[in-house]
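Customer escalation, tier 2.

The customer says the design service returned an amino acid string that "doesn't look like it belongs to this structure." They asked us to rerun it and document both sides in this ticket. The original structure tokens are below, unchanged.
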């Protein structure tokens, strides 16, 4: 890995193609299984510079769009027990550094949930850049991290009869993102 890696993507401001992207999460439930969910409303901007280190990404996720395929659970997640979507409608991420190469990127940034901002590190990889059948230049990424929900003030839980708690503190976040480079008009 070089100190300054040339960006493998075309320089410019890329916009997220939400219809080809997903923001998902999973958390251990009752100590025996995982509950998976996603957010269906989100946007992001990827700014590619001449080097990877000078590039950046910003994202906004609408909390009310949480979907775990269970309306009652989704309602509970939107409540003050968890995300408090009414008071904190948006989760945000803003990168502070990007390093590595296309196969092994580390994106460090500020994640804000419930008004609490913490630095997180995402392991990421570039899927590649290609021109699609309609002439649009696209780039794809996969990124993941694990966070402590308690660090963001999300502490609700219930004790289990056999010991332990209903909802794990650790939450795995996985992002599949497709970006499009707007054409010059």
């Amino acid at each position: 890995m070089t100190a300054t890696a040339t960006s493998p993507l075309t320089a410019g401001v890329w916009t997220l193609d939400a219809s080809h992207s997903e923001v998902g999460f999973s958390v251990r439930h009752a100590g025996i299984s995982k509950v998976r969910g996603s957010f269906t409303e989100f946007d992001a901007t990827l700014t590619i510079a001449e080097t990877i280190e000078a590039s950046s990404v910003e994202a906004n996720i609408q909390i009310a769009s949480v979907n775990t395929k269970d309306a009652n659970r989704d309602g509970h997640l939107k409540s003050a027990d968890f995300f408090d979507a009414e008071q904190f409608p948006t989760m945000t991420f803003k990168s502070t550094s990007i390093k590595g190469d296309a196969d092994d990127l580390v994106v460090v940034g500020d994640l804000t949930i419930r008004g609490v901002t913490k630095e997180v590190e995402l392991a990421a990889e570039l899927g590649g850049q290609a021109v699609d059948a309609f002439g649009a230049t696209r780039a794809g990424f996969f990124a993941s991290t694990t966070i402590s929900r308690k660090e963001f003030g999300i502490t609700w839980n219930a004790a289990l009869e056999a010991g332990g708690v209903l909802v794990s503190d650790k939450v795995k976040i996985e992002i599949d993102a497709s970006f499009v480079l707007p054409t010059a008009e």
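Tier 2 assessment: The sequence is consistent with the input. The mean pLDDT is 90. Residues 120 and 132 are 32 Å apart (CA to CA). Sent an explanation to the customer and offered a walkthrough call.
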